[in-house]
Amino acid sequence: MDTWVIAMMLGASVFLGAIALFAFLWAIKSGQFDDEEKFLNAAKYDGEDELNDAIKQEQKKEVLKKRYKPE
Amino acid sequence: MSNKVACSHCHLEFDSSIMIKDESNYFCCSGCQGVFHLLCDEGLDSFYKKSNNVVLSPISKTFEDSSNFDTPSFYEKFVETNSDGFSKVSLIIEGIHCSACVWLNEKALHKMDGVIEADINFTNNKATIVWSDDVVKLSKIINMIRSIGYNAFAYDSLAQETHANKERKSYYLKMAVAIFASMNIMWIAVAQYAGYFSGITQDVKTVLNIAEGILATPVLFYSGLVFFRGAYYALKTKIVNMDLLVATGAALTYFYSIYITLMQSGEAYFDSVSMIITFVLIGKFLEVLSKKNAADTLDMITKNIPSEVKIVKDGNIATCKLNDVRQGDIVVVSSGEKVLLDGEIVKGSGSFDEANLTGESEPIYKNVGMSVISGTTSIDADIHFIATKDFKHSTLSNIVTLLESAINKKPKIQQMANKLSEYFSSIILFLSIFTFALWWFQTNSFDISFMIAVSVIIIACPCALALATPVATLVGLSLGASRGILFKEAAGLETMAKVDTLILDKTGTITIGKPEVIKEHIYDEFDKKLLYSLLKLSNHPVAKGVSKYLEKENENIVAEILDEFTQISAQGIKAKVREINLLGGNIKLLNENSIETTFLSENTIFYFAIDNKLAAIYELTDKIKDGVSELVEDMKKMSIDVVMLTGDNSRMANKVASSVGIKDFIYEQTPQSKADYITHLHEKNKIVVMVGDGINDILALARSDIGIVMGSGSDIAVKVGDVVLLDDSMKSLKDAFKISRTTFGLIKQNLVISIVYNAITIPLAMAGYIIPLIAAISMSLSSLLVVGNSMRIRNKWNKD
Prior knowledge:
The complex is a heterodimer of chains A (71) and B (800). Chain A is mainly α.
C-alpha cells in the first residue's frame, strides 16, 4: 500500500472522529445532558405545540431586543 | 355507603357532600377551584389531559409576600443581567411531580408579556427564567407561578454546589478529549507495534507518528493543562508533587517523540504521552466526582427560619422583621408556630415541642414566667412572650455559628497521601536525572541516555498510585450506595475504617422517636370511631400514636366531626358529639374529672373515658429499633466502644441503655455538651463516629470524625452528616463499618502493589533493560491490576 493512501485514510477517519468529538463537546457545554428526564423522554416535550411556542418566544425576544437598541 | 367523588383539579377523592359543586365539576377547596378556572381561561386546560389524572396536592394559600422578590438586595444577590441586557434568575419550583407540571409552568410563563425564556429542569426542579425587567417585575412572575398552584423560591447559583458542578463539567470535557485521542492513538499504535516486530518502512512509520502526534497534542496541551498548572503552583511553594512528575514525564516524552519524528529514525512514544495523561486524569476525575458538596448549611437553616415575627406594638399586633426585634419586645406565637427568639412568657400557656433541641420526646408544658427557647415549636400554646435576647444572641443563632466553626475541624487523611506523593515524585525525578547523567557519562550518546531517562520517568508513572485510592473508594462508595448507605465523601470511607468509638443518640436513633401503643385495655365496649375522631383533632405525639394504632386495627376508620372540642394543656382533649362526652388524656385529666383508676405502669399511659366512665387505657412506649442489641454486640467484637448520649432524663436513659446492652451512657445532654464530649474524646486520641438524627445532634455530628445520620432525620442533620443511612436501620450501620474496613484494606493492598511494581521496574529501567515501549505497556498493566484488585471489594466485604 502506498504511503499516501495510509496518510489519507488516517486523515479522513481522524477528521470524522473529530467532528463527532466536537459535537459531543458542544452538547456537554450547552447543557444537553443536564436534564435527564427531558433528554431521555424528549418525545414528551417536543410536540408541534412546543415548537410553535419556541418560535413565538424567539419572536418576543427579537421585539424586546429592538426596544433596547434605541437606548 | 359513601359517595366519593374526585376533585376536578387535584383528583383527590372525598365524600360528595363536602365538595364544592360548580356546574359539572367538583372541587375540594376554593384553591383548586381558582386554579381550574384560571387554567381554563388561559387556554391551558389540556394540562388535565397531559397529567392523566395524577393526584396533585391541593393549593395552600400561606405564602410570604412576593414583593420581597423586587427589593434591590434580592436582585443583587440572585438576579444577573445577561449579554442582551435581559434579567436572568434561577428558581426552584416546588410542587412539580410530573412532566405535565413542567409543561404547565413553562407554558404559563411563556404566555406572560416580557418573559423571554422559561426553562425548567425536571430532574432538579430548577427553573431558569430570562425576562425583560422593564416589561414585567419578578414578583409578578412569582405570583403567576403561585396562582397555578406551585411555589418558587430563589436559588443562589453562587452556592458551592454549582461551583462543584462547573468543575466536574470541565473535567468531563477534558476527559472526553483525552479518551478520544487515546483510543485513536491506540489503534494507530497497533500498526506501529506490529511494524516494530515484523518490519515497517520509515515512510509509513513517519506517517503514523505524525498522526499520533496530531492526536497527542490536544491531550497534552488541553487536558494536560491541569497538571502543568498544578506543577507550577506546587513549584512556587517549593513542593514537588505528582503533577510535576506527570507534567515533566509527559512533556519530555512528547518533545522527544517530535524530535524522533522529524529525525525520521527511532521510535516515537506519543501513545505513552496520551495514556499517562488519560489515566491520571481519570484518577483525578474520580476524586472530583466524589467530592462532598460543602454543606451550605447556613442557607439551609435560614431557609427554615421565617423572616418575620408578630410583635405587640401600641396595643396592636404588627409584623416585624426578625432581625429588627429588640430585647424587651413582646412577641406573639400561635399554636403550631416556631419560637424564634429566647424569651419569657408573659401571657398564655401551653405545650412546646423541644425535641429539636433536647431530644425530649414528651412535650413540655409552660406557663407565665417560664422561659421559651428559640428553635422550639409551640404545639398548642397561644402565648405572648417578652424577648430576653434579640435574634443574633438567641440559642438558634448560636447553634448556627457554632456549627460553622465545627464544620471546618475535620482531620484529613489527604495530607498523608500528599506527603507520600511528594516524596515519591522527588525521588523519581532525582533518579531519572541521575540515570541520564550516568548513561551519558558511560556512553556519551545523548539519544540513548535520554531514552533511558525517559523510560525511568514513564515506568515510574504514578498512574497506579493515582488510581489506587480513587478506584477503590469509588467501588466502596457505590457498594455502600446500593445498600442504602450514602458516603458523601471518599475520605469518609478511610476515616470510618479507623474508628474506635461509636456514639449513639437515643431518640430517633436507638428508638424510633414516635410513641407506639404496646398494650390496649378495654373496660367497656365502645365505638372506636369516637376515640379516633377525638384523637385526630390533636397533634400531640401520644394522640398520634394511639390513632395510628386504631388505623392499623381498622384501615377504613373515618373521623367524625365533633362538637365542642377543647384542648386542655398538659392534660388532654375533651369533646362532645351527639350528647356524648368524650375525654382523652393523662392521669391529671382523669383527676380533674373525678374519674378513678388504679392502673399503674412504667410506660406512658393514655386514658379514654366516655360520659365520665373509663372506657379504655392504652400503654405507649417509644420502641427501640430492631437490631440495636446485635449492633452493640458486633461493635464489641470489632473492639469499638459504644456510648449513648441523650438529652432525656436519667430514668428513660437507663431503661433504654440497659435494654440494648450499652454500659456507658450520659443523660440530660445539651447540643453543646454533646459536642464537648466529643472534643474530650479527641483529646484522648480517639477516632469518633456519631450517629444522630435531629437538630440537637448537628453540633456533635459536625465535631465528630464521621457523622452518621438517619435518612429520616431533620434536613439539617442530613446535610451535615458525612454518611446517611437511607433505611434508618442498624444493620446498615454495621454494613457501613464492614464496607469501610474492607475498602481501606484494599486501598492499602493497591498501594503496596504499585510500590512493589515500581520497586521492581525502576531499577530495571535504570539499568537500561526497558525501552519506553515496554515501559508504556507495563504502566498500563499496573493501572489495570490496581483497578481489578479494587473490584474484589464487592466479593470480599461480606465474607469476614
